[in-house]
Automatic annotation (TrEMBL), chain A:
PANTHER family: MALTOSE/MALTODEXTRIN TRANSPORT SYSTEM PERMEASE PROTEIN MALF (PTHR47314), MALTOSE_MALTODEXTRIN TRANSPORT SYSTEM PERMEASE PROTEIN MALF (PTHR47314:SF1). This is Maltose/maltodextrin transport system permease protein. The chain crosses the membrane at residues 36-59, 65-83, 92-116, 308-332, 344-364, 396-418, 439-462, 509-531. Keywords: Cell membrane, Membrane, Sugar transport, Transmembrane, Transmembrane helix, Transport.
UniProtKB/TrEMBL annotation, chain B:
Keywords: Cell membrane, Membrane, Sugar transport, Transmembrane, Transmembrane helix, Transport. It comes from the Bacteria. It is a multi-pass membrane protein. The keyword Phosphoprotein does not apply. Belongs to the binding-protein-dependent transport system permease family. MalFG subfamily. Its main location: membrane. This is Sugar ABC transporter permease. The keyword Transport applies.
Automatic annotation (TrEMBL), chain C:
This is Sugar ABC transporter substrate-binding protein. Residues 1-28 form the signal peptide. Pfam families: SBP_bac_8. The keyword tRNA-binding does not apply. Keywords: Signal, Sugar transport, Transport. Belongs to the bacterial solute-binding protein 1 family. The keyword Aminoacyl-tRNA synthetase does not apply. InterPro entries: Maltose/Cyclodextrin-bd (IPR006060), SBP (IPR006059), TAT_signal (IPR006311).
Length: 541, 304, 424
């Protein structure tokens, strides 16, 4: 299957790397490479250094000293790698690793960090943001209060609000001076006050230029703050507002104005009252190992866990084995120079790989429709086979579709790898009277496995987390009967993680990351062990 | 070069071909055709539905009822006539980004594979294992991380920030050292080291060995990796949709998806038409690369 | 591999460094220069005009483009439309808004409000007297926890579409409808698209409410009490029985194998007498040359059949630094008759502004859908709905497939599961 990470269609591919300055590091090694090599090297390294210098300059301006230091070290490191004499491997590895660190490892570090937080819906930003937004949504218009037509005035740098109520009474006020009636305002044709002596009226453009200031302008209606305040959101209309919740900065609490209920920081990223009720918007905090503890103690995960784990291994294992078997068989079958039409066959065979996977998934779910699907209707003559809704058949269907999606990849890779087989060995074996199967089993397969074994392991890992094919075909269904969770017969671990962490009231990235990391550790250990066992790291030379 | 395969298969197969019995022909080649046709049918028949949907102006994608009941080119016309969804530009963007990034992937991957295959250094085995494990890390939050990173990078170097093709290409290059490296590493290992050693004795630098001896010998795998990378990049939706938001800079996968992104008002017909056309560059690239993929390793310099 | 130590290396390295460094200085100088000029431009630009960023999806972009151009002409504020994939808008907005890179304004369906408010990414807007210009249900839908969070512009709901060639006149009850459908000789008397993975509680909701089983209790002002389910009542259990009776093992009026696309295809082919669907399928039906009428939703349980209403609206980011310009655009501009007319002309969705709707209602299809919508209720917007939909759908699917021997018990079980998720 598509085991490579960037090119797994639809799968979330690589990601980000830490700060630092991206640089298109290319390198050519030192040595007696002739003029072209040297010139190329000078140009490339100069180019890289130029970008680095530019980035460092920008970082210095922005005062990002930590990133500046890291970038500087990286830049010096690159120059050192290419200017020194030894260290040849580094010269070849540096550019790829640089991109890898920047974009892939950063995503790893980030995910790991998130696993230790409560990041998710309701906890998506800082505490300051949460306080701001609670205040924003708690500021309610006083019911049945008049709607004022408003004009923004400037009084020597300070803003004032000139408002006309629905009866035509005009008043003016500032942040310090509560609203006071005025008589002498200039009115426009609709009766709205648009100017006042001693003040400058701000035109719309001026208001926009100072929109932050205007939006923050709060004019008390009277000396008693409980009467409410006038504010404008668009510079032309003002309403009387009163907060439902008041924030006490010193005590770090919100108080409900009508009920007197006090909400304090619960230490869990929310404001909580004594009766346990919380304010909707929370913030992101570090929660230590809480998410991991939840992952191991969550009752919801208990019930169907074993069958999901078994199916995950079966799904990944069978997918790899079947696609590889099919791919290598076809590659060998077509690896004959005198086979007519092999170019056409090859191109048609890799077509499934060239179409968007979710489109194919949709087509397959139509084909497998029990009543109207092509497979039941046309191929099986009107049989009613519940391909996608029977617990056993749905597993088979998912495998069929996954094989369909994945074997072109294996076919391509095997076709390429076959070219590396020395033909004289095969020739000799043939002359010795070995049959085709023996040649394949004894000679070709071991040689191919040398180059393809790591690929099979990584293909296993990819299928272990092959969210897309499950999700688009069955959504994990049909559901298990013995659980009240939304988990079913074709759910693999990663789709279960998705449902558990995102299926409740909002998405819980913290829990999802923790679960995903646990899965990673499991599959990583298995892969590392099998990697050593296959001796894939040993060369044949 | 390209004849090496046939010639090593010995003339024995060629001469009796003229009067080969059916049984013999079937044993030698006929079964291959049978397999090929079966496999091709398996590959193709779901896609026939896509083609049928592409030609069906009603825009459904049930995949169930009879095929080609309603044939017309309206979907293709629609595809090219919406100024807000510039299909032509998407195609060009995809080609530019896909070809650049896959060329970069091949180059970076080949360099790394060369180092792993031909040099011995501290941390080599560890690096190989680390590369493999890195692939397995669940990328659940990759998009969020990526957004934050490009957001930051864009503040420092605007040319690689959010919304830039260059930024997207760099992200794809982040995945260059992965399975691709393994694929090439395995292939590099099959090239006898005696070849580069004799070249070194002749006075070639390691760079010359790499470019002039190794790379020509491993063109099949370079072509495979290049093709796989191109397919992967051109069908990537998740990352590209976060990085590229202006319709004029989007790739095909992102742009086309907008036709079906909204539940209940999907336009599968136009989407399918776009998918059919989007498969054309992949096919063309495969046709172009096919001769390299099957050109055979044991050619040229090995024999010589 | 050993690198040969050559005499020339040091000198070469030196030249190289020198060249590289000078190139670096040159580039840095250019780069630095350009940044400075960019910085000096920014405040100058800000004084004369503001630029708003707005996220929209490709469907709505054309209409908004014209309105944005007009707005620029009228108020001098540029609106930069960013076309996002509809499916990605909500999640991307929640992640990106706190970084300051999010948009000022976005288009969204009202059932996202719960999640957006929960994340503190949208700000309330004050419609003031303008609220009366919109249909009551649309403003209700845009209200969450007592605050209005957006300016509504389009209202959508489902209706019963009848193939008039097959069935001549409208029927009021579900039984009559099905009987008429069967009498017509059509292969499918009654079509409704169901998701094979989780049925479709949205489409079956009017039938459910006709049994007196709304999902949540609604307060006077239209807000939902999401603390407990209301559909766990006798009506709900009757509805469960009704689904089972009319499911795969029963009359097959609800067929779990009929997906949305299959239902559409069958109806377009003239093989269906009735089609329970929304306005999004009307253009295709017209194009296919089917003579159709839009009937009120039939009642199955005797009470009124209330469909869910989906309202699209314009929201303002709470992280916007252009809050005034954003409010000007959203509250004062997009709420005008001209803007809502233009949005209707391009998008074809029934407008939320009463005066625009009345104009649009010269089209009988719009009028009929609008008429049916007045009896509807807004889809609940609480973040908890995600859990509700999943369990609700799965249970309905099981009922329709005839997998539940005791439908009432299955319904009870479902309600318990959903409530457990609320508390957990």
């Amino acid at each position: 299957m598509n085991g490579e990470s960037t090119s797994t269609r639809g799968a979330v591919a690589p990601a980000a790397g830490p700060k630092g300055t991206g640089r298109g590091g290319r390198r050519l090694p030192t040595n007696p490479d002739g003029m072209i090599g040297i010139v190329a090297k000078i140009l490339l390294l100069g180019f890289v250094d130029a970008i680095a210098a530019f980035a460092l300059f920008q970082l210095a301006i922005n005062g990002e000293w930590l990133v500046f230091a890291v970038s500087l070290i990286v830049t010096i490191g690159i120059n050192w790698i290419y200017l020194r004499r030894g260290g040849l491997p580094a010269k070849y590895l540096a550019p790829g690793i640089l991109f890898l660190l920047l974009f892939q490892v950063f995503a790893m570090v980030f995910s790991t960090y998130i696993a230790f937080t409560n990041y998710g819906d309701g906890h998506n930003s800082s505490k300051e943001d949460a306080i701001d937004s609670i205040q924003l949504s708690a500021l309610e218009r006083v019911p049945d209060s008049p709607q004022y037509a408003a004009t923004v005035l400037d009084d020597g740098g300070e803003l004032a609000l000139l408002v006309t109520d629905p009866d035509g009474n005009v008043s003016v006020g500032t942040a310090e001076e509560p609203l006071e009636p005025v008589e002498s305002a200039q009115l426009d044709s609709t009766g709205k006050a648009v100017g006042l002596d001693g003040y400058t009226t701000l035109a719309f453009g001026d208001i926009l230029a100072r929109q932050g200031e205007v939006a923050d302008l709060v004019v008390p209606i009277s000396d008693n703050l409980d009467d409410g305040t006038l504010q404008t959101q668009d510079g032309s209309t003002a309403y009387v507002f009163k907060p439902r919740l008041v924030y006490d900065e010193a005590a770090d609490t919100f108080t409900d104005v009508s009920s007197g209920k006090v909400y304090t920081d619960s230490g869990e990223g929310t404001f909580q009252a004594e009766d346990g009720s919380t304010l909707g918007v929370g913030w992101k905090i570090n929660v230590g190992f809480d998410n991991f503890v939840r992952a191991f103690t969550d009752q919801n995960l208990r019930g169907p866990l074993l069958s999901v784990i078994l199916w995950t291994f079966a799904f990944a294992g069978i997918s790899v084995a079947a696609t590889f078997a099919l791919g290598i068989f076809l590659a060998i079958a077509f690896n004959r120079a005198d086979l007519k039409g092999k170019r056409i066959y090859r191109i048609l065979m890799i077509l499934p790989y060239a179409f968007p996977a979710f489109l194919s998934g949709l087509v397959w779910s139509g084909l497998m429709n029990a009543e109207f699907g092509f497979i039941n209707n046309a191929i099986l003559g009107g049989a009613y086979i519940p391909w996608l809704t029977d617990p056993v058949l749905s597993k088979i269907s998912v495998l069929i579709v996954n094989i369909w999606l994945g074997y072109p990849y294996m076919f391509l890779v095997c076709t390429g790898a076959l070219q590396s087989l020395p033909e004289d060995v095969e020739e000799a074996a043939r002359i010795d009277g070995a049959g085709a199967w023996t040649i394949f089993r004894v000679i070709k397969l071991p040689l191919l496995l040398v180059s393809l074994a790591p690929l099979l392991i990584s293909s296993f890992a990819f299928n272990f987390n092959n969210f897309n094919v499950i999700y688009m075909l069955t959504g994990g269904g049909p559901r298990f009967d013995d659980t009240n969770l939304d988990i079913g017969a074709t759910d693999i671990l990663i789709t279960m993680v998705y449902k558990v962490a995102f299926g409740g009231a909002g998405r819980d990235y913290g829990l999802a990351s923790a679960l995903a990391i646990i899965i990673f550790i499991v599959v990583g250990v298995i892969s590392a062990i099998s990697f050593r066992k296959t001796k894939a790291l040993e060369e044949i030379n | 070069m390209s004849t090496s395969q046939t010639s090593t298969r010995t003339p024995v197969e060629h001469i009796p071909q003229v009067k080969m019995s059916f049984g013999r022909w079937f044993k030698e080649k006929g079964w291959r055709h049978v397999v090929a046709i079966a496999a091709t049918l398996f590959s193709i028949f779901p896609l026939v539905y896509v083609l049928s949907a592409a030609l069906n102006p009603t825009g459904t994608m049930a995949g169930t009822t009879s095929l080609f009941t309603n044939v017309g080119l309206q979907n293709f016309v629609d595809l090219f006539s919406d100024p807000d969804r510039p299909f032509g530009k998407w195609l060009i963007n995809t080609l530019v980004i896909g070809l650049t990034a896959s060329a970069g992937t091949v180059f970076l991957g080949a360099c790394a594979a060369y180092a792993f295959s031909r040099m011995r250094f501290a941390g080599r085995r560890f690096s190989l294992l680390a590369l493999l494990l890195l692939q397995m890390f669940p990328q659940l939050l990759a998009v969020v991380a990526l957004f934050l990173l490009l957001n930051y990078l864009g503040d420092i170097i605007p040319a690689i920030g959010l919304g830039t093709s260059l930024g997207l290409i760099m992200v794809y290059l982040g995945g260059a050292l992965g399975v691709n490296t393994y694929l090439m590493y395995g292939f590099f290992n099959t090239v006898p080291q005696s070849l580069d050693e004799s070249a070194r004795i002749d006075g070639a630098s390691h760079m010359q060995v790499f470019f002039r001896i190794i790379l020509p010998l491993v063109t099949p795998i370079l072509a495979v990796v290049g093709l796989l990378a191109f397919i992967g990049i051109s069908s990537d939706f998740v990352i590209a949709s976060v990085v590229l938001t202006d319709p004029d800079t989007q790739t095909l996968a992102v742009g086309l998806y907008s036709y079906v992104a909204q539940q209940r008002s999907e336009n599968w017909g136009v989407f399918a038409a776009g998918a059919v056309l989007a498969a054309v560059p992949v096919m063309a690239l495969f046709l172009y690369l096919q001769r390299y993929i099957t050109s055979g390793l044991t050619s040229g310099s090995v024999k010589g | 591999m050993k690198v040969q130590n050559l005499p020339g290396t040091t000198r070469r390295a030196f030249t190289l460094t020198a060249l590289g460094a000078s190139a670096a200085i040159a580039l840095a100088a250019c780069g630095g220069g350009s940044t400075e000029s960019a910085e000096s431009e920014a405040p100058a630009g800000g004084e004369t005009s503001a630029t708003l960023t707005m996220w929209t999806d490709a469907e709505r972009a054309p209409a908004l483009k014209d309105i944005a151009a007009q707005f620029k002409e009228d108020q001098g504020i540029e609106v930069d439309l960013v076309i996002k994939d509809f499916a990605a808008v909500r999640d991307d907005f929640i992640t990106q808004a706190p970084t300051g890179k999010g948009p000022d304004v976005l288009v969204a369906p009202h059932d996202w409000l719960g999640t957006l408010v929960q994340n503190g990414v949208i700000a309330p807007v004050q419609l003031g007297d303008k609220a009366d210009d919109f249909t009551e249900a649309s403003v209700q839908a845009m209200t969450y926890e007592g605050q209005v969070y957006g300016v509504p512009y389009a209202v959508e709901n489902i209706a019963l579409i009848r193939n008039t060639e097959l069935v001549g006149e409208a029927h009021e009850t579900f039984d009559d409808v099905v009987a008429a459908g069967e009498a017509s000789g059509a292969e499918f008397p009654f079509l409704v698209g169901l998701d094979p993975k989780q049925a479709d509680p949205y489409h079956t909701y009017p039938l459910q409410t006709s049994f007196g089983a709304p999902v949540f209790e609604q307060a006077e002002d239209g807000s939902y009490d999401v603390s407990q389910l209301a559909m766990n009542n006798d009506g709900g259990k009757e509805f469960a029985q009704f689904l089972a009776d009319n499911g795969d093992q029963g009359t097959k009026v609800f067929n779990s194998n009929v997906t949305g696309d299959i239902a559409k295809e069958k109806f377009l082919a003239g093989e269906g007498a009735y089609f329970l669907t929304g306005p999004w399928n009307v253009p295709a039906i017209e194009e296919a040359g089917i003579d159709f009428a839009i009937d009120p939703l039939p009642t199955a349980g005797g009470e009124a059949a209330q469909p869910f209403i989906g309202v699209n609206g314009f929201l303002v980011s709470s992280y916007s630094e252009n809050e005034l310009a954003a409010n000007e655009f959203v509250v004062n501009y997009l709420s005008t008759e001209a803007a809502q007319d233009a949005l209707f002309d391009q998008g074809g969705r029934p407008p939320a502004l009463i005066s625009s709707f009345e104009k649009a209602a010269s089209d009988p299809v719009i009028e009929a859908f609008g008429e049916i919508g007045t009896s509807g209720v807004p889809m609940p917007a609480a973040p908890e709905m995600q859990a509700v939909w999943a369990d609700w759908g799965a249970t309905e699917l099981n009922l329709i497939k005839g997998n539940e021997s005791d439908p009432a018990a299955a319904w009870e079980e479902m309600s318990k599961n959903i409530e457990a998720k609320f508390n957990g």
